[in-house]
């Protein structure tokens, strides 16, 4: 039996060879992954602002610049923790060392076998899922084992979905996040017509966060954002 391993994980594919791009999109799709395709660095920047991927597969030689420059942008910005696999035709030991020391989590040269690419991406995602026991942001402390959020050491008494939403916001501060994306991440199904569930849960979370110095704002066409009051 063929078991799909992607489970809805989102991969950003940055590749200027359209044949390779289409092939990888199709094959990752068969494995249960979602993909975003970018043929240029400009398109990659637009894609990653619109939606945060779980991993990036990045070519180095691109028509509008070097993939290494884009990778360094990610490593110094809010997307620093995203696993990056460099997939490139640069094959010398010096190229590989340069790519890994610049911030790549893995390096695979072309031509390649898709099964090897898939195995390496799955390994990157497994490592990325090993979250710390606690996450601290300003006055918030999130206990990842117990799913408990505290403000100045006081339990906020969040429900599981409130905790999941707060975690997403804390991991993506001062960034607008689409409501449908939030719903799919927390409820693990398409939002469809059930918009009130997200709104009511965020309303309760806002109430429990009062006095923290942070607020969850909303902007039409952009979504929700955790920002300083």
Which CATH top level class of the largest domain fits? Alpha Beta
In terms of structural class, how would the helical and strand content be classed?
alpha/beta
Strand percentage lies at 15-25%
CATH topology call of the largest domain: Rossmann fold
Biggest sheet layout: 5 strands, parallel
User: Level of helix content?
Assistant: 40-55%
Distance between the termini: 52 Å
Q: Can you give me a brief rundown of this structure?
A:
The protein has 229 residues and is an alpha/beta fold. It is 40% helix and 23% strand.
Summarize the topology.
Layout: E1 10-14, H1 18-30, E2 34-38, H2 41-50, E3 55-58, E4 61-62, E5 65-66, H3 67-76, E6 84-88, H4 93-101, E7 106-109, H5 114-128, E8 134-137, E9 140-143, E10 148-151, E11 154-155, H6 160-171, H7 179-187, H8 195-208, E12 214-219, E13 223-228
Parallel strand pairs: 1-2, 1-3, 3-6, 6-7
Antiparallel strand pairs: 4-5, 8-9, 9-10, 10-11, 12-13
Summarize this structure as a short list of keywords or feature phrases:
229 residues, alpha/beta, Rossmann fold, Arc Repressor Mutant, subunit A, 2 domains, five-stranded parallel β-sheet, 13 strands
Q: If you had to describe this structure to a student in words, what would you say it looks like?
A:
The structure is a single chain. By secondary structure, this protein is an alpha/beta fold. It folds into 2 domains: 10-128, Response regulator (Rossmann fold, 3-Layer(aba) Sandwich), CATH 3.40.50; 134-228, Winged helix-like DNA-binding domain superfamily/Winged helix DNA-binding domain (Arc Repressor Mutant, subunit A, Orthogonal Bundle), CATH 1.10.10. The chain has 8 helices and 13 strands. It has helices at 18-30, 41-50, 67-76, 93-101, 114-128, 160-171, 179-187, 195-208; strands at residues 10-14, 34-38, 55-58, 61-62, 65-66, 84-88, 106-109, 134-137, 140-143, 148-151, 154-155, 214-219, 223-228. The strands form 4 sheets. The protein has a 5-stranded parallel sheet with strand order 2-1-3-6-7, with helices on both faces. A 4-stranded antiparallel sheet has the order 8-9-10-11, covered by helices on one side. The termini are far apart.
